[in-house]
Amino acid sequence: MSDVTFHVLENLAPASRSALLRRSETDLSAIIEKVRPIIEAVRTEGDAALMRFARELDKAEIGQGGLQVTSAEFDAAFGKVAPDVIEAIQFGIDNIRAFHVQQKPEAMWLKEMRPGAYAGDRFTPIRSVALYVPRGKGAFPSVTMMTSVPAVVAGVPDIAIVTPPAPDGTVDAATLVAARLSGVETVYKAGGAQAIAAVAFGTETISPVLKVVGPGSPWVVAAKRLLAGIIDTGLPAGPSEAVIFADDTVKGGLAALDLLIEAEHGPDSSAYLVTHSRRVAEEALAALPEHWARMTAQRVAFSTAVLTGAYGGIVLTPSVEESYRFINDYAPEHLEILSTDPFVHLGHITEAAEILMGPHTPVSIGNFGLGPNAVLPTSRWARTFGPLSVMDFVKRSSIGYVTAPAYPEFAKHARTLARYEGFSSHEIAVSEIRKKYL
Questions:
Q1: Radius of gyration (C-alpha) of the chain in whole angstroms
Q2: CA-CA distance, 215 to 23, in Å (whole number)?
Q3: Side-chain half-sphere of 403: how many Cα atoms within 13 Å?
Q4: DSSP output for 86-119
Q5: What is the CATH T-level fold of the domain 6-23+239-372, as seen in this structure?
Q6: How many Cβ atoms sit within 10 Å of the Cβ of residue 386?
Q7: Sign of the CA dihedral with 311 first, then 8, 354, and 299 last
Q8: pTM of this prediction?
Q9: What are the pLDDT digits (tens) for 303-334?
Q10: Residues recognised as catalytic
């Protein structure tokens, strides 16, 4: 218990305070150099490289069935997953779909800017996308739900999931159930940097796509950075992170309970309890051993590593205003506002990808199917990115239409600006010469 990192914010030097904002993927230089040869091998060797990396990195042997999950494997998955798990997956998918249907933009809109001149937007689906579903520290059908449903709602015609295989060469059964119930039937047994390279370049089995989305390890993040010129790598989603903000109206044991949610993802996660209440901080510290006693050994090891390391712990601030400031500086992936009146605090916090409010809305509920997407920007990218959404699977085209009566006024002003900027062809295109061709 005494090893949990406990920061009294007002006692920290500026450099130490800045260090609290770092995440495990902040410096990827060493991993990037290891990822380069993996990417090049996939580019030049295709399926053979994926098979080899499955053996070497995932300790998995891909059998005779090959890299693509078969229809029979999908069918068999439903017999391997308990009915209550299938029910929970369907419950989540229903909510996620309802949320994202509301989010979907109308296919096209036009507004009359001036009499006879119209402008607007048209939204069309991206033709092909890949969804990365991690597996290294567990199985994540919830990520399958969160990535698949908005892609299906958006109308993407070519959707594929890439996910690391288990040692026996299979894909997690619940992940296959979630994929099929979401509307995705193409799943490949490939993970890590090699999977990102495969969907960027294509292999004998895997077709290249235009975009890849989904959270992953620092190796996945590094591969996305290296391949950003080849494929759209979507919002930056790395290892899990959360800030639990608690005011003096809640019990510290509750804050400790929720602090462990994202901390248990892995030792590369980040998790802080931020509070201006010493009582809450001390109660949380005292409650952690009791909560750890109920967890599995692996998750205790992961969360202990986070909360005793450089990327997690308890931050005691001198005031609620300083709590707000720290949270906005940190720009967390997940933020919980633990308070009996969370709306009092909401207006003061602008930099968070997901904000879950009140004692009855833990990150668990957000992750598994409240409706809003739980694939979120990490490493302070919440300052410029939002959650994964239908908008990540569509592209926007501007539409313009000028009628003959409206043309002269627009042409006059276009000629003036074209002449000023020195573009003679721009000017000529809206000059008297045009009338010869109309």
A1: 25
A2: 15
A3: 9
A4: HHHHHHHHHHHHHHHHHHPPPSEEEEEEETTEEE
A5: Rossmann fold (3.40.50)
A6: 15
A7: positive
A8: 0.92
A9: 999 999 999 999 999 999 999 999 999 999 99
A10: 333-334
